[in-house]
Amino acid sequence: MNYVPQINRRTFVVSAAALGGGLALGMDLPFGPTVVRAVDGAPEITAWVVIKPDDSVIIRIARSEMGQGSMTGLAQLVAEELECDWSKVSTEFPTPGENLARNRVWGSQFTAGSRAIRESNEYVRKAGATARSMLIQAAANEWKVPASECSASNSVITHKTSGRTTTFGKVAEAAAKIEPPKDVTLKDPKDWKIAGKPLKRLDTAPKLTGAHVYSLDLKLPGMLCAAIKDTPVFGGKLISFDAAKVQGMPGVKQVVKVGDGAVAVVAERWWQAKTALDALPATWDGGENAKVSSATIAELLKGGLDAEQAFVGNEHGDVKQAIATAAKKVEAVYAYPYQNHATMEPMKRPSSIRRIAARRGCRRKSPRRRWPRCPKLPACRSPSAMSTRCSSAAASADARPTITCIRRSRFPSRYPARR
């Protein structure tokens, strides 16, 4: 996984033009002007594909990878139209700060409901096709032959008549100076060699080796960690807790009541906070929702199916009459248990509070949603596709940071607990 340690306009372009000849390729669809200048003055032609002199290809993915494989799937779509060597492909996640600073060149970064592929497949394919066209044109210009006589495959451009060849990396710098075509032709899916094929996911290896960086991997000087426990029932309240029982445990700094329904333990390290939280005696009032169980939820749903007055989304014919007069009836009951829309991993939110600045971070399916609340946020980096870091201002040199890394030990349900 490639990522830029500090994203601002200069370092972004430097990374795209790594080794002195890198090229950022994409297309001017569908999100406004995107042309910026590289370090050597050559234009960066939008933002989707980076090609380096060694023929390595970095494909930028604007949607979050949440385990569903969309990062690899989107990369496959771009690589298919680009006609690049898949073995040399890696990915990079543009930050919401850079996307905002560049007039949302990568468009929506919202990830949910299978939208990553469904909503962006066409324009990322066009980005790959545009890049391919520009690379071919650059090679044709060098050979002084029509581009129509050239083709690309596996990161190699070939002049059909003479048999001459060159690689993407060798013509990348020249391609950066070519005007992107206004229209490109996409490949017929029946000719796909990369897209839609069961290739190995690009994110599996770094996740297995621990190389992938998540927001919970963030370490800052003086950082403390807090583990928080919410009421086990939605709408419940925290009645009491005995902080004295855990105050003397290793690393514990403070026990804090959070609102009416949660308590947190702040410690030097996460495991210390988590261990102390587990040992903290706490009393809860579940309220009326404490009576809710899987059985009562199932009964409620069943009652809705049998109700005389019910919302009907689509009606064709008389179902009840057809069943009543049927010569043969087949009856089956299908039930699906109540599911909470929650993460499997602990939620976390790194925060840094200083005298004149606040720095927060969280994992989000829609990284940009928080931005309108803080309009002066500069471009910032995200450690991975699963996290977002935002900085509102630069703190003064003598400001003493109070940093807390909060990881939830239980995701608060929006619905009554299943018992």
How would you characterize the overall build of this protein?
The protein has 419 residues and is α+β, with helices and mostly antiparallel strands. Helix content is 24%, strand content 19%. It is flat, with a radius of gyration of 27 Å. A 7-stranded mixed beta sheet has the order 12-13-10-18-15-16-17. Strands 1-4-5-6 form a 4-stranded mixed beta sheet. The N terminus and C terminus are likely disordered. The protein contains 9 helices and 18 strands. It folds into 2 domains: 201 residues, Aldehyde Oxidoreductase, domain 4 (2-Layer Sandwich), CATH 3.30.365.10; 96 residues, Aldehyde oxidase/xanthine dehydrogenase, a/b hammerhead (Aldehyde Oxidoreductase, domain 3, Alpha-Beta Complex). It starts with 8 loop residues before the first helix and ends in an 11-residue tail after the last strand.
Write the layout of secondary structure elements.
Layout: H1 9-16, E1 23-25, E2 36-37, E3 43-44, E4 49-51, E5 57-60, H2 70-82, E6 89-92, H3 96-101, H4 115-143, E7 150-153, E8 156-159, E9 165-167, H5 168-175, H6 204-209, E10 223-230, E11 237-241, E12 252-258, E13 262-267, H7 270-279, E14 282-285, H8 294-306, H9 319-324, E15 348-353, E16 358-362, E17 388-391, E18 402-408
Parallel strand pairs: 5-6, 10-18
Antiparallel strand pairs: 1-4, 2-3, 4-5, 7-8, 8-9, 10-13, 11-14, 12-13, 15-16, 15-18, 16-17
Helix pairs in contact: 2-4, 4-5
